[in-house]
Amino acid sequence: MNTANLTRSETAARSAAVTVGDYRVELDLSAAPDRTRAGFATTTTVTFDATVEQTWLDFIGLSVESVTVNGADVAVEYDGARLTVGGLTETNVVVVRGTGAYSRSGEGLHRFLDPVDGQTYVYTQYEPADARRVFACFEQPDMKAPFTFAVTAPAGWQVMSNRPFAAIQDNGVIQNVEFSPTLPISTYITAVAAGPYHRVESSWTRGELTIPLGIYCRASLARYLDADTIFEVTSQGLDFFAEHFDYPYPWGKYDQVFVPEYNLGAMENPGLVTFTEAYVFRGAATAAQYEGRANTILHEMAHMWFGDLVTMVWWDDLWLKESFADYMGALASSEATEWTDAWVAFANRRKAWAYLQDQLPTTHPIVADITDLEAAKLNFDGITYAKGASVLKQLVAYVGREEFFSGVRRYFRKHAFGNTTLDDLLTELSADSGRDLAGWARAWLQTSGVSTLTIENGEIVQTDPRPHRLAVGLYDFDAVGDLVIRERVELDIVDERTPVPLAPAALRLLNDGDLTYAKVRLDTDSIATVESSLDRVTDPLACGLIWSALWNATRDGVLGAERYLSMARDFAPTETNMALLTAVLSNASFTIGHYLPDPARDRWRGEWLESCWATLHSSAPGSGAQLAWARATATAATVDGRRATDIAEILLGRAPEGLALDPDLRWALWTALAATGAAQLGELDAELARDDTASGRTAHRRALAARPEAEVKASAWDSALGDTTLTNDHLDATIDGFRAGRRRDLIARYDTEYFAALRAVWDQRSIEIARRIVIGLFPAADSLDEVDRWLAANADAPHALRRLIIEQRDHLARDLRVRGAN
Predict the structure, then answer these.
(1) How much is the mean pLDDT over the chain?
(2) Cβ atoms within 10 Å of 555's Cβ, excluding its own
(3) Residue 493 pairs with which residues in a beta bridge?
(4) What is the DSSP string of 28-93?
(5) If DSSP codes are grouped into helix, strand and coil, which group holds residue 733?
(6) Which of 160, 262, 563, 805 is packed most tightly, with the most Cβ within 10 A?
(7) Contacting residues for 414 by C-beta, under 8 A, at least 6 apart
(8) Please, are residues 499 and 459 in contact by the beta-carbon 8 Å criterion?
């Protein structure tokens, strides 16, 4: 086994034998602007008690210069991932001096050069186990300890960590910044960021508690930073959680930093939350984008309690933080911010992710069996996040809201700064509700799969039976022709068939109110009503659930793809909820590319492009809908070039009234032209000169690789597989460009090479980069033969790699199956 891939059993044995006292971590980043320097000096001093004579520290770096155990220099025993330390006594002080490597993948300490002003920025990202790329440590969540960070950096830089600084020494060239010790936390949520970041300050006060607030971004993005909006959501969230958790925010300050080339949406480091700078909108943004950002802010804030204050023992119970944060993000959004329809987006987008993941052959229970770190890395998925959140929503209804929060408050008080498992939480939730939650946990947390609910002959029929509390909404037309609810029937179902007397109605909506986690099917009469009158449904959540039911039926081959596309064409132009509109536009595009046979696909590509083009021009000037349809037009135009001349006119400045041609939209349109052969190299280079920023360079790379030329695809292929200097963003752009236009005639020749390269990619690249290559370059073939041959010949491949291939095979199998049904 690769020694970097820690297992659950060995880490459990280590934590049983070792108790950490504290860490002091010293990082020398003073030479970070020097691009010839691949690494940085890192010194860790860790104190711990031990009942064994020997253990190991985790460190993945360029080198280890020295190790001191209890004041004595010892021989360095280091295999590139584990550092053996022996001669231990009951109480120990170990000092490790090494050299860490600056990252280009977002793992560990990422270094970024801003092309706008030539400034250098660094930041850390560790989840689940990359703190060891920055300092030597016991890299497992149950070995919590206080950390003191001391950072040497160029003078003039902002230097941040989890805690406020305690002392700064600055000689005008370099500065030495020492931070106050943290409270006990896990290694993966420690954090450092440094660089000439732009900072905006505020504060939040509740009672006698005042929390300093800070927002950071790169200096070249400062003009786009809407700090007031972010502070507003932040304060609303802190108010909400203070009221509901009744445990004061414990981390002393609340900084939020937007960082470049991030490989996540955000990370909950206490006191220093990091976000992708995609949330700093360089141009116009839809309401769905602002709502999504607010949800992410609140999701990470919930982690300050769920995950940071109380942490799972091991990654089996990852749901103890991610499911709760996902649920709390939506709840706080809907009840504390302007985004009162947050559950609509949750029902239609987050749960769609869960339904997709839960139908794969690699699906797993919410409480998963995570044997090692590679498995943990892949379990940050739709089950752990969205299915878990859906189940928690059910649990709140099951035990009662006040009882739920009472149990949560007791859970925080009892386990603060400690580690927990499923049983610890269920004990506290059961105490006030009076319900034995063991059966509920078995049904929802410890099993996998998703039920499908239908109404047949006066019965609700469910596949894969589970206990559900749900409602059936009966909708009819009112006097003005709107579809409104006439009656709502709530009931519990457990068995495969449950009789339910329902009066006739124009639309019968199972799971009305989205009370449970299940796919629902519309009956024949309801589908007929929807096909003619979906735009007459006035309740946004009901509308979202209908779109969700239609999409799941389309994915399952139960509803014809062309019927779905006809409804998208007819009703998406009138959809006012931007989250729903964004989801429908994405699903329609996916349906055309994946679920239609060739003749219908060719026809619908043109029809969909024309529908997007017409709606772009009929949308209200400057509206979010206009922007959404402009983006949909760009997506549609990457596979159909008939509007190339018109798109070129837009890029020349003749855009529809009110449409803001921000850099991101311009690049989307240029990529569409490039993918259909309507953009020349010189034009793309000229656009880069116009937008020579980090985002511009990434988009330029994508557009270059999108060009439909054999030599271009060959270059992109070689770069994706062989250029280890690519950042995570540049790798994604190269892969996206390679696949743009869905030109199988140009890229099918690489299928065999893809499978031949898989083992080497997994062995030689970091798991983050390898995962992007494995998923991004998986062939969209017309048969399963080649992937099946690889799986048969590689039974001994690492489990995480096989899981990714099995999942991609299942997606392809669904495409072929549904395409055949259509």
Answers:
(1) 96
(2) 24
(3) 468
(4) E-TTTT-TT--EEEEEEEEEEEESSS-EEEE--SSEEEEEEETTEEE--EE-SSEEEE-S--SEEE
(5) helix
(6) 160
(7) 424, 428
(8) yes
Residue-wise pLDDT for 748-776, tens only, equals 999 999 999 999 999 999 999 999 999 99
Contacts with 35 (C-beta within 8 Å, 6 or more apart), sequence order: 113
The DSSP secondary structure of 764-821, one letter per residue, reads HS-HHHHHHHHHHT----S-SHHHHHHHHHTTTS-HHHHHHHHHHHHHHHHHHHHHHH
- CA–CA separation, 296 and 302 (whole Å): 10
Q: At 455, is the secondary structure helix, strand, or coil?
A: strand
Residue range 610-650, pLDDT digits in tens: 999 999 999 999 999 999 999 999 999 999 999 999 999 99
Write the single-letter amino acid at 701: R
Contact status, residue 744 vs residue 815, Cβ threshold 8 Å: no
Q: Which of 185, 175, 184, 138 is nearest to 44 (CA)?
A: 138
| Amino acid, res. 124 | T
Buried b / exposed e along 271-294 (16+ C-beta atoms within 10 A):
bbbbbbbbbbbbebbbbbbbbbbb
For residue 632, which of 619, 645, 688 has the smallest C-alpha distance? Answer: 619
Given this model, what pLDDT does residue 312 score? Answer: 96
Q: Is residue 475 a contact partner of residue 505, using CB atoms and an 8 Å limit?
A: yes
What integer pLDDT is reported at residue 1 of this predicted model?
46
9 burial level (CB within 10 Å; 0-12, 13-18, 19+): exposed
For strand 72-74 and strand 39-50, is the pairing parallel, antiparallel, or unpaired? unpaired
Please report the DSSP string for 107-139 in residue order.
Answer: SEEEEEE-TTT--EEEEEE-TTT-GGGTS-B--
Strand partners for 112: 121
Asked if 530 and 463 touch (Cβ cutoff 8 Å), the reply is: no
Q: DSSP labels for 249-303?
A: --SS-EEEEEETT-SSSEE--TTEEEEEGGGS-SS---HHHHHHHHHHHHHHHHT
- C-alpha 80/C-alpha 393 separation (Å) is 44
Note whether 45 and 70 are within 8 A (CB): no
Residues 15, 137: Cα–Cα separation, whole Å: 12
Cβ atoms 648, 641 nearer than 8 A:
no
Count of other CB atoms within 10 angstroms of residue 652: 8
Q: Residue 151: exposed, middle, or buried by beta-carbon count in 10 A (0-12, 13-18, 19+)? A: buried
- Tokens at 477, concatenated: 């037309």
Largest CA distance in the chain: 87
Q: Which residues pair with 509 in a beta bridge?
A: 473
Sequence-ordered list of residues with C-beta below 8 angstroms from that of 254, at least 6 positions apart, any chain: 204, 211, 212, 213, 214, 234, 238, 271, 273
Backbone angles phi, psi at 316, to 5 degrees: -55, -40
Q: Report the Cα–Cα distance between both ends of the chain, in Å, rounded.
A: 45
d(CA 695, CA 573): 30
Residue type, 288: A
Letter for the amino acid at 496? E
Q: 213: part of which helix (H) or strand (E)?
A: strand 209-217
State the Cα–Cα distance between residues 21 and 47, nearest whole angstrom.
Answer: 5
DSSP single-letter state for residue 52: S
Tokens of 440: 């509920």
Looking at residue 539, its amino acid is: D
Prediction pTM value: 0.96
Mean pLDDT of 785-813: 97
User: Residue with structure tokens 């909108």?
Assistant: 281
Q: β-strands 108-113, 174-179: how paired?
A: unpaired
Pairwise CA distance, residues 565 & 568, whole Å = 5
The whole-angstrom separation of Cα 515 and Cα 508 is 15
Q: Tokens 């709390």, residue?
A: 328
Q: Strand order in 507-510's β-sheet?
A: 483-493, 468-477, 507-510
Phi and psi, residue 481, nearest 5°: 95, 5
d(CA 592, CA 557): 14
Length of the chain: 822
Computed over its alpha carbons, how large is the radius of gyration of the chain? 27
Please answer whether residues 49 and 8 qualify as being in contact, where contact means their C-beta atoms are separated by less than 8 angstroms. no
Q: Annotated catalytic sites, by residue?
A: 300
